[in-house]
């Protein structure tokens, strides 16, 4: 009898794997990944002097888990520069310990929004840790713990649910910052697209018990509205979009505390910029050279900005435009529930690939096939030139195809590339031959992760770096073709940029020939993009065939090799006759609309306690019923907290929006100093807390 039953059970189970419309389960979660708010260089512009000196917006990780009865996809978008191998390894390791084998490397996609205003030091390859004087354990821990918090919450909240897909155009929130490189792509290909950047936002909406619980909205724009002079931690335009949409659904709940979450993950943003005004030379205001982005005066920098009057306003505008687009899609989904519903099995597949020598057959335009290969990593000269979002060194320009100057000798001292390596990367002149640089530990990744998730007809391709607009479109094209060939009608391809592994940029073969910043930072040579297209095709085929990919290749765990030269944190002492939490700069009695309120408290180094899921600052309002209610934390747009010696200085800008909530009349009373002090004591400073 038992023998008879067994095969039937097996049959049923395997049949359910191919069930057309299995029921879905969904979970949603958020965690705080804010890193050290002092002393640590920010990740993105690679400027050692751009160190954190406080907080404008807290950084959050937002996760959805979607499952059917066979497989799951865990997708997390964190307000950090990018995702790195070490963070992914650590998160998956701890997930394994906590949840068993349910979640693993192949069905967990971790992604960074690419904000350039978060603390650095969490990547495990040497090149990315130079500006920040090495690895920063505090940043790494903050990110790993915050991501795990969001995953735990998502896991705990899993319930039967529904998933919806929608999209819309976001007409005015991105431009191409290397348009001359884009023009190198074949005309026939370019003619298929109206713009030189992707203007479509793609959104997944998660519901359960008939209630909307969260949305994830991918849109290709660099979060570089805050420029390299900013010293306050910020989630940039993507984070602003999250705050606006979350507030729309959560009401007056403080940022990061509401049940509804809205994530704005990175996409194929490699050559995109939110700085909509054309780049100009800082000193003269003249346009820069379109090919090299250099100024006539070689001592001048070429910088793009806008659309606002300063970087804060630009951040708000670009964030708001993304938020508006997402809200529009949500409304549209509400009107067309049946049509927007995503039905079908949930599947995922991942692989590790040795990108230093990936050989594959490439089909040319004319149908001829050639065997091509990728190269060991190397960075080109124009990498050091930076971009119009953030300049690099004046000794370099974009579009450099020759070695020059003292650099030929200096960088050869680090490592002299072989003729073979030079030929492999041509026409890129090699500045840093990172593929052969292993001291004190490897400089750039060699084994790279590519992952593909599928929910019905929606595919999520986890891209291990910053793919340019066209590089992304080519992946989307190929995946669409493969999905159709496997019988998927109307496939939707979401490109999840900066996921799992960070390998700098990926430009197309043609853009690579131009060697602007993105091409010079395409580390595995001219066929990098084509190699990934090949990999995603193989992943998709394997996913449909129910096959598994080779699994004997893993990136090294470099955590125990890391070096940190960051200054140590000193224990904090309040000044004589002062206590932590004492108010050292009293607010005025009265404020009008648009006024800034400056308050200072005696505090210590925020690196001593990052106040995870908490705040260094609380603005409260006294209600008629004599109860104090929270109106803003250090994660709110309206507040800025900066550290200054032993004080934290808080600035609250009473803009109209804020004013309406905080002060109902045109003018209002700010809590008198005694109350301030009481509150300061009541919530205590972080230092007091750490003493107890
Ligand atoms: C964060 O704080 C909120 C309340 O302020 C709490 O409900 C939530 O569980 C906390 N999350 C974590 C991960 O500690
Ligand atoms: C950064 O933005 C500020 C305005 O907020 C501007 O004054 C400054 O020149 C900009 N700096 C760079 C390098 O873009
Ligand atoms: C493609 O193959 C044909 C026939 O083998 C050859 O004549 C042609 O030159 C090839 N084209 C290229 C670009 O190699
Ligand atoms: C590419 O290499 C494979 C394996 O070595 C070989 O079978 C194939 O014929 C080659 N293709 C071309 C176009 O040379």
UniProtKB/TrEMBL annotation:
GO terms for molecular function: metal ion binding; N-acylsphingosine amidohydrolase activity. The keyword Ligase does not apply. It catalyses: an N-acylsphing-4-enine + H2O = sphing-4-enine + a fatty acid. Residues 1-17 form the signal peptide. The active site is at 273 (nucleophile). Binds 1 zinc ion per subunit. Residues 665-692 are annotated as: Disordered. Its EC number is 3.5.1.23. InterPro entries: Ceramidase_alk, NCDase_C_sf, NEUT/ALK_ceramidase_C, NEUT/ALK_ceramidase_N. Residues 536-640 form the Neutral/alkaline non-lysosomal ceramidase C-terminal domain. Keywords: Hydrolase, Lipid metabolism, Metal-binding, Signal, Sphingolipid metabolism, Zinc. Residues 25-533 form the Neutral/alkaline non-lysosomal ceramidase N-terminal domain. Pfam families: Ceramidase_alk, Ceramidse_alk_C. Zn(2+) binds at residues 114, 222, 466, 505. Belongs to the neutral ceramidase family. This is Neutral ceramidase.
